[in-house]
């Protein structure tokens, strides 16, 4: 009887018959108390034990259960906050990678082994359920992650907040804001493709927010899997010290498990869905390789850790404990990347990865989080991760939920409580927290309070992405996240009559996604949407149809050209207008010159050096307004101007006729006059294009890139596939998706991301100006 009592509050994968037998054994067939006995379909415990269905049976009538093989998983069913004071047992991690590296598949296994879900579903599974973290219908249809999804899980005595992020470059803002609030990350790499273009982008984002990471080499079961090539690419392409903590036993179809170089054991993943991690002695045929790779691990640690360096010089042999401590120190200091390996789809290598996350990634109180004190000239202040200190939190993501706006919040210090009051630092608005939830993909679990280091969500709070909240005692604001500029635009109009849902959808998407922009063209009166790529905009158009019942017609994609000057020039312009009564008068004098974009992304600079009151100080803001208005729409093809500094040196005013409007018009016309004398050029977005295709199509694919006037930067050939990195103008990339499919019999794929703006060729500039002038004439008719 006592043996069975340990199963109370356990969630089991037993058959219904076996669950009823448990319940009957505990309470008898007639005396089952609903308050005492958990529903036999839903039993809970921690750690979680369950009996294989095929080995659970009843013998000798109800009440006797033959327990077969016992397997161990962990229960994450409780949504209660991590125990206060145990912040060192909390891990906030993101799972990031290049598209199709297996992030969502890996997250699905993590949720299963931590007991968060009871059944594994594949991203493109035959059961049409889809992975848990791909909760949007579009995600399950296309087999890609579009929005980052958060969940909460427990592994052994540790608690995890996990965010699964998209791999496609079009949804890079999702990765950006996830990494902004996370303390560590798992960088997933494909054992065949290795370090790809988006891997480098994600690594750059991790470095921007100082996020330590662990690498997981996934897809070890694929043909052509080579983990050592991937580890070498980490060192050469990401310029990081990296070494494997495991070596694989076999590869491709023969992948059996991994050898742990610290435990010095061979790990086999047995039982249903690989839940049993069985440790055995290292097979003799892998002993030499294991010794060599452990020595290599020691060497790389010696380059980044002082204690290991001293031992290496003294020719001492470190123990496994010393190696583990050194790995943690170097990983938290972002000097070293530990590399794990396995196959998520084959349920191998995931549990050791969870152990590595607990052992080597930092807890929230080990990470330095900096806020700016508004009351003290925005001086930097380090936050404490103490629950007793005043509350500070960051709203890093917004989402339209079933019950209104859902605001994702990272708590940095203090406590956030349901029913409590918090202040939005940006507008000093006091807000009551009506409902506090923890997220599990698209499911909500109510909680009463959340402590430092935690990630949660609030309902009914009107704010913007990136707003900082405090309890009112502090005036701190968190540093903002990096938001890339859109590179592609589309004209958009609803089919038939425009409904309120059209503007409602666009307003919501703009609020949720800082890289999605909407404006109305002043001349054509068309609604223009801008984003990070064709797929990005296509997804939003499809979401408008599904979520708001608004069918839209899109125009031809427009490239986000920019205009710039290459020389400086002076201006001396007088604006004079007399029409009876007081007229308009303003004279401005100075020069314009090219300017570099600064660290904050500013590309337009206005300076005044006017002395003696020749231009009254109250008219100077109007002069700046005229200059910035001119920057918004260029004078060659009507696109924004970038990289200009205007210096106002002198001018003249009239006692009666001068006004703000007169000086604004004078500065605008002066800027136009000087701009056209400064050798203006048109700049086009250049994309970094990463193409992967079978080796037999290499010549055809590279020929296609050359035809689009692309510059080949790097090529790499494997046994079956080759990859090519090129720089191509975005204007030349339209229609490339169908072209590469045709060139490679549907086996090739490509991804691209914005690199920089670059001058167009002179003949292209002439053609663009002619096309713009022709369009203007047509619009005037």
From TrEMBL:
CDD domains: EF-G, EFG_III, EFG_mtEFG1_IV, mtEFG1_II_like. Residues 88-365 form the Tr-type G domain. It comes from Linnemannia exigua. This is Elongation factor G, mitochondrial. InterPro entries: EFG_II, EFG_III, EFG_III/V, EFG_IV, EFG_V-like, EFTu-like_2, G_TR_CS, P-loop_NTPase. Pathway: Protein biosynthesis; polypeptide chain elongation. The lineage of its organism: Eukaryota, Fungi, Fungi incertae sedis, Mucoromycota, Mortierellomycotina. Its main location: mitochondrion. Catalyzes the GTP-dependent ribosomal translocation step during translation elongation. During this step, the ribosome changes from the pre-translocational (PRE) to the post-translocational (POST) state as the newly formed A-site-bound peptidyl-tRNA and P-site-bound deacylated tRNA move to the P and E sites, respectively. Catalyzes the coordinated movement of the two tRNA molecules, the mRNA and conformational changes in the ribosome. Mitochondrial GTPase that catalyzes the GTP-dependent ribosomal translocation step during translation elongation. During this step, the ribosome changes from the pre-translocational (PRE) to the post-translocational (POST) state as the newly formed A-site-bound peptidyl-tRNA and P-site-bound deacylated tRNA move to the P and E sites, respectively. Catalyzes the coordinated movement of the two tRNA molecules, the mRNA and conformational changes in the ribosome. GO terms for molecular function: GTP binding; GTPase activity; translation elongation factor activity. It is found in: Mitochondrion. Belongs to the TRAFAC class translation factor GTPase superfamily. Classic translation factor GTPase family. EF-G/EF-2 subfamily. Gene3D superfamilies: 3.30.230.10, 3.30.70.240, Elongation Factor G (Translational Gtpase), domain 3, P-loop containing nucleotide triphosphate hydrolases, Translation factors. One of its GO terms (biological process) is mitochondrial translational elongation. Pfam families: EFG_C, EFG_III, EFG_IV, GTP_EFTU, GTP_EFTU_D2. GTP binds at residues 97-104, 164-168, 218-221.
């Amino acid at each position: 009887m006592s043996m069975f009592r340990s199963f109370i509050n356990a969630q089991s994968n037993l058959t219904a018959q076996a669950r009823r037998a448990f319940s009957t054994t505990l309470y008898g067939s007639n005396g089952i108390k609903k308050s005492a006995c958990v529903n036999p379909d839903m039993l809970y415990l921690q750690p979680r034990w369950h009996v294989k269905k095929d080995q659970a049976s009843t013998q000798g009538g109800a009440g006797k259960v033959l327990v077969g093989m016992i397997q161990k998983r962990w229960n994450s069913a409780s949504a209660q906050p991590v125990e206060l004071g145990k912040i060192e047992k909390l891990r906030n991690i993101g799972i990031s990678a290049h598209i199709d590296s297996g992030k969502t598949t890996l997250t699905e296994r993590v949720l299963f082994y931590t007991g968060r879900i009871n059944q594994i579903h594949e991203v493109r599974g035959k059961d049409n359920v889809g992975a848990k973290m791909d909760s949007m219908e579009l995600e399950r249809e296309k087999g890609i992650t579009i929005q980052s999804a958060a969940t909460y899980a427990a592994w052994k005595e540790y608690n995890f907040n996990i965010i699964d992020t998209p791999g496609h470059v079009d949804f890079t803002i999702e990765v950006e804001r996830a990494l902004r609030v996370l303390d560590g990350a798992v960088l997933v790499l494909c054992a065949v493709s290795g370090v790809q273009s988006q891997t480098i982008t994600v690594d750059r984002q991790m470095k921007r927010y100082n996020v330590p990471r662990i690498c997981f080499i996934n897809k070890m079961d694929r043909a052509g899997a080579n983990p050592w090539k991937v580890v070498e690419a980490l060192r050469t392409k990401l310029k990081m010290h990296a070494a494997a903590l495991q070596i694989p036993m076999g590869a491709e179809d023969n992948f059996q498990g991994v050898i742990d170089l610290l435990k010095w054991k061979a790990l086999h993943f047995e039982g249903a869905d690989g839940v049993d991690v069985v440790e055995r002695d290292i097979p003799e045929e892998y002993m030499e390789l294991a010794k060599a790779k452990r020595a290599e691990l020691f060497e790389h640690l010696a380059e980044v850790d002082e204690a290991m360096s001293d031992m290496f010089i003294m020719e001492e042999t470190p123990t496994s404990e010393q190696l583990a401590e050194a790995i943690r120190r170097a990983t938290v200091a972002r000097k070293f990347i530990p590399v794990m390996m396995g196959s998520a789809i084959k349920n191998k290598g995931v549990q050791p990865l969870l152990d590595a996350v607990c052992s080597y990634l930092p807890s929230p109180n080990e990470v330095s989080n900096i806020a700016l004190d508004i009351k003290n000239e925005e001086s930097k202040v380090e936050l404490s991760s103490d629950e007793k200190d005043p509350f500070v939190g960051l709203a890093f993501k917004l989402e339209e939920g079933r019950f209104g706006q859902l605001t994702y919040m990272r708590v940095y210090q203090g406590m956030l409580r349901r029913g409590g009051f918090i202040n939005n630092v940006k507008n000093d608005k006091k807000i009551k927290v009506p409902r506090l939830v923890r997220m599990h993909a698209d499911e909500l679990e109510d909680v009463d309070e959340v402590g430092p280091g935690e990630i949660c969500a609030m309902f009914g709070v009107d704010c913007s992405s990136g707003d900082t909240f405090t309890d009112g005692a502090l005036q701190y604001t968190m540093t903002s996240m990096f938001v890339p500029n859109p590179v592609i635009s589309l004209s958009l109009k609803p089919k038939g009559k425009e409904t309120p849902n059209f503007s409602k959808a666009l307003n919501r998407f703009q609020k949720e996604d800082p890289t999605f922009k909407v404006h109305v063209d002043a001349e054509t009166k068309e609604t223009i949407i801008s984003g990070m790529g064709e797929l990005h905009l296509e997804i939003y158009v499809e979401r408008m149809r599904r979520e708001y019942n608004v069918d839209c017609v899109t125009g031809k994609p427009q490239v986000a050209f920019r205009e710039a000057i290459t020389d400086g020039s002076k201006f001396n312009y007088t604006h004079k207008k007399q029409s009876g009564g007081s007229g308009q008068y303003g004279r401005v004098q100075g020069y314009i010159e090219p300017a570099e974009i600064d660290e904050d992304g500013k590309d337009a600079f206005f300076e005044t050096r006017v002395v003696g009151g020749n231009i009254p100080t109250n008219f100077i803001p109007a002069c700046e307004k005229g200059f910035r208005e001119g920057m918004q729409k260029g004078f060659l093809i009507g696109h924004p101007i970038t990289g200009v500094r205007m210096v106002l040196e002198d001018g003249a005013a009239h006692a009666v006729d001068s006004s703000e409007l007169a000086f604004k018009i004078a500065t605008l016309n002066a800027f136009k006059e000087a701009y056209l004398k400064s050798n203006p050029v048109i700049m086009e977005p250049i994309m970094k294009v990463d193409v992967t295709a079978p080796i037999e199509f290499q010549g055809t694919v590279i020929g296609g890139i050359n035809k689009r006037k692309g510059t080949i930067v790097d090529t790499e050939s494997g046994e079956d596939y080759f990859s090519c990195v090129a720089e191509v103008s975005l204007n030349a990339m339209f229609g490339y998706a169908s072209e590469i499919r045709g060139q490679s019999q549907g086996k090739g794929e490509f991804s691209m991301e914005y690199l920089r703006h670059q001058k167009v060729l002179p003949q292209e500039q002439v053609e663009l100006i002619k096309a713009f002038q022709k369009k203007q004439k047509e619009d005037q008719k």
